[in-house]
Amino acid sequence: MDSETSLNLPVIDFNYLELEGKNPKWEEVKSQVFKALEEFGCFEALFDKVPLDLRKSLFVLLKETFDLPLETKQRNVYENPFFGYIGKGPRSPLYESIGIDDSLVLENVQSLENNLWPQGYPTFSKVIRDFSEQLSELDQTVRKMVLESLGVEKYLDEHMNSSTYMLRVMKYSAPQTEDSKMGVIQHTDAGITTILYQINEVEGLEIETKDGNWITYQPSPHSFVVFVGDCLHAWTNGRLYNAFHKVMMRGNEARYSAALFARPKEGYKIKAPEELVDEEHPPQYKPFDFVKFVNYFHTQEAQKHRIPLKAYCGL
Ligand SMILES: O=C(O)CCC(=O)C(=O)O
Ligand SMILES: [Fe+2]
């Protein structure tokens, strides 16, 4: 691939898409989605359904949230690596985040709200919930298109019902001159899909192509980045690619982002449907439980491997 001319993510327009029934626009977008996810493992989605007001409110709220005292944020620390507050660490000294599990359910967001603001802050919960719901719509559209493209839409209900969402909001502090610029080290996302929104227009996200070039994503208030995670890569028996990505900070402004992660529910075994396994496509992974895989993913042993999923259950 010519590294000078092709270093842009595919851009796919989800505006004016009719969701009901088969129509030419749906088919056109669907084929763009599948091609992008096969080749790049991700794409930039134009999706104006999320109102700009909501995005602006989210920015204000996240600044307020991360400006709270560390002790307040740390009231939300749990053993489970998905949940709650993750503070700056030796491997990612600029990064902090808060994970809100099942953030489409208002009560879940409210319990975080009450922890952060004991006097209450209903706008926080409403904005987080509404934003999560809008992103989940885009996610469901993409996953429906993937299953249709593979001719396995009969599994759509099972596929959707066996997954759950978490919204993670993130802040990357601006590096001081002598700090490393590393925001998040290169990784693939472990779950099914990720819909990422860069809240302020501070660059930083970089995505690796199959041939080892890095694309710098140019943030825009109108676009979201959709990623295939390890579980969808495995479920499609390797047909969809799971791209490495990382965050490198530059400049002197903090960066805020939010990501909706779809992941399999605990106890659900990820196994490629039989339709996707044949002589031409031999099975690539043993069936696995996501939670057990993530526990492995966080071990030092897993970190030695470029592709932890292959080390864990590759065939
Ligand atoms: O903040 C970003 O742009 C990327 C974050 C990320 O890759 C992740 O949380 O998995
Ligand atoms: Fe990621």
TrEMBL record:
A Pfam family it matches: 2OG-FeII_Oxy
Source domain of life: Eukaryota
Membrane spanning residue stretches: none
InterPro entries: DIOX_N, IPNS-like_FE2OG_OXY, IPNS-like_sf, Iron_ascorbate_oxido_reductase, Oxoglu/Fe-dep_dioxygenase_dom
Family: Belongs to the iron/ascorbate-dependent oxidoreductase family.
Function summary: Probable 2-oxoglutarate-dependent dioxygenase that may be involved in glucosinolates biosynthesis. May play a role in the production of aliphatic glucosinolates.
Name by which UniProt lists this protein: Fe2OG dioxygenase domain-containing protein
Species per Swiss-Prot/TrEMBL record: Acacia crassicarpa
